[in-house]
């Protein structure tokens, strides 16, 4: 079964205004998925993903301190938190991630390797 999750992760945003401005159009996203093998669209709420505060801190060495990580401290820790939580909820056999953000993809790969 192919499951696609759409979730705007508040733990990735240092600035609450950035979180509020982040575009959200679930219907448009769902429409785009109609031409894919997606069988289930999972759009959890913040409370479903984070029923309790997630205080885990992940160590990516220098990988999350350069480029975007230099300007957005904590951002990639939030990425690892949400990927971890979504994996816990969905329990995938395989996972596929976009490649538009090379540093984020490297962080996810590092998290998966651990």
UniProtKB/TrEMBL annotation:
Keyword Secreted: no
GO molecular function ontology, one term from the record: pantoate-beta-alanine ligase activity
Pfam families: Pantoate_ligase
Gene Ontology process terms (BP): pantothenate biosynthetic process
GO cellular component: cytosol
Keywords, in A-Z order: ATP-binding, Ligase, Nucleotide-binding
InterPro entries in alphabetical order: Pantoate_ligase, Rossmann-like_a/b/a_fold
Domain of life: Bacteria
UniProt key word ATP-binding: yes
Name by which UniProt lists this protein: Pantoate-beta-alanine ligase
């Amino acid at each position: 079964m192919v499951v696609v999750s759409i979730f705007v992760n508040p733990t990735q945003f240092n600035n609450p205004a950035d979180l509020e401005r982040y575009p959200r159009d679930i219907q448009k996203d769902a429409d785009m998925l109609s031409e894919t093998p997606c069988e289930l669209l999972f759009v959890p709420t913040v409370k479903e993903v984070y029923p309790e505060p997630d205080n885990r801190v992940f160590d990516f060495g220098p990988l999350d301190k350069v480029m975007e990580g230099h300007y957005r401290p904590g951002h990639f820790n939030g990425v690892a938190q949400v990927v971890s939580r979504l994996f816990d909820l969905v329990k995938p056999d395989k996972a596929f991630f976009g490649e538009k953000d090379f540093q984020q993809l490297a962080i996810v790969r590092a998290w998966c390797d651990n």
